[in-house]
Amino acid sequence: MNVRTLLADAARRLAEAGVESPRVDAELLMAHVVGRPRAGLLTLDDVAAEDAARFAGLLEQRADRVPLQHLTGRAPFRQLELAVGPGVFVPRPETELLVEWALEQLAGLDGPIVVDLGSGSGAIALSIAHEHPGARVTAVERDPGALAWTRHNALTRAGARDTPVGVVAGDMTDAGLLPELDGRVDVVVSNPPYVPDGARVPREVADHDPPLALWGGPDGLDVVRGMLDVAARLLRPGGRLGIEHADQQGTALPAVVRSHGAFSEVADHPDLAGRPRFTTARRG
Ligand code: GLN
């Protein structure tokens, strides 16, 4: 069957269903089915009937708002491709600059210690380990469903360099978390659940991302408030904390961190789209 026709029909089908980037999604699904990179579709004229049938099946699921990354099983994030699927939060491009910031804090440090609280797919932890070889990174995840993906990605490395990442089952608000790292951590980084209860989220997020990765109480900041004591205890003096937040929390989250008392140099940073996205601070 002709690829160009299939793609044109597919893009139309996804557009009708209200999918945001119909053409790109159609191409990525086709690339997945035929096992080529997206650019490789340019030199492909026909696909076998069974591939066309598989494509049609995936297309209907996408039209029904199953996340593209669940259908391909992969989520690109910085230099890596994480394995993802039902049960784990799909890493977002918004989070990439938080990793960039963490790497800047680690520059020049030999074997720095890093903790990623609420690691999910491990996107942040594995990217830091990959881009700062020698970093000693621990990924913490409390949701057993998500933890299976953290472990899977840590084991298979998701294309990362051979820097091991430790995976720990634990809750970022647990006062006794990681006692062996007390006062030793150079950077604590987190993309915690921060969506205010009752806020509207797109159907593909509400139906497919795990609730524990999303909901953060009435103002979305309950988990962050619960995490600050743990972060303050783990960080060495001068160590840095970086926390992602919703674009409406660019004032509220810095205020929460300031009022905790253990941190100085509290600052807020935009994401690649220029929206307020993460708060950073210095321990002490
Ligand atoms: N940014 C996420 C979203 O798209 C929310 C993630 C979170 O709460 N950490 O819904």
TrEMBL record:
Reaction equation(s) it catalyzes: L-glutaminyl-[peptide chain release factor] + S-adenosyl-L-methionine = N(5)-methyl-L-glutaminyl-[peptide chain release factor] + S-adenosyl-L-homocysteine + H(+)
Residues annotated for substrate binding in this entry: N191, P192, P193, Y194
InterPro entries membership: DNA_methylase_N6_adenine_CS, HemK-like, N5-glutamine_MTase, PrmC_N, RF_methyltr_PrmC, SAM-dependent_MTases_sf, Small_mtfrase_dom
Domain Release factor glutamine methyltransferase N-terminal residues, every copy: 6-73
Binding site for S-adenosyl-L-methionine: G118, S119, G120, S121, G122, E141, N191
One Pfam short name: MTS
Record-annotated Methyltransferase small domain positions: 96-197
UniProt-listed Enzyme Commission number(s): 2.1.1.297
Role description: Methylates the class 1 translation termination release factors RF1/PrfA and RF2/PrfB on the glutamine residue of the universally conserved GGQ motif.
Protein name in the entry: Release factor glutamine methyltransferase
Lineage: Bacteria, Bacillati, Actinomycetota, Actinomycetes, Geodermatophilales
